[in-house]
Specification:
single chain, 237 residues, mainly alpha, two-stranded antiparallel ribbon, globular
Length: 237
Amino acid sequence: MTTSCVSAVTAARGAARTSAFSGSRAAFVAPSMKAPSSSRGVSLRVSAGASRELWLKGSNVAPAHLDGTLAGDFGFDPLGLGADPDRLKYYQEAELMNARWAMMAVTGICTTEVLGIGGPWYEAGAADYDFPVPALLAIQFPVMGIFELKRIRGWLATGKSGVNESFPWDPIGLNSASMAQKEVMNGRLAMLAFVGFGVQAIVYREGPLAALKDHVTDPFGNNMATNIMHIPANLGM
């Protein structure tokens, strides 16, 4: 009888240890299977397909939230800013809006310089257009405010960019995946170009085409290094 009791107690203890070990194993494995919380900006990195082009040549690893479905997605998000799906949609729309403004700005700056319309682009804001500034603001703020309100409401409702009541806005039928890719790529280039135009205007006090001509004519006398050294003279300091 005593031997049987000892055997039973030993078996019970063994079963308890097995159960406790199994429970701890389950507790250990479970968190690793959970999806990362988007509120904390956590993003897994997954292997991308061999045919997908990424921003870093030779790499095949991209953030999990950048799966290649967005136009212009090359897997670049080192800070994980787009890990939240809602924020990712907003960032995509914000990038498009800034890209479109930049493309119009770069085109306008280069066109007016080629045609000789007006003075330097960076002095356009100080020019006198025979129109009172208060009256201009009184018209501009309400008009742009109404159009922007309609745009953001339309985007929130449809997820598409548009104008007034048209979402997406595509009057000549160019909306396609390839055109969306080209728009993002050219828009990013235009944003970088506009930043360059701004820095160039501060440092060199010339338009982009005039500065390019000077550099081609005398590359060693007109370049980034020489212009930085002459910032006080160029700014009249």
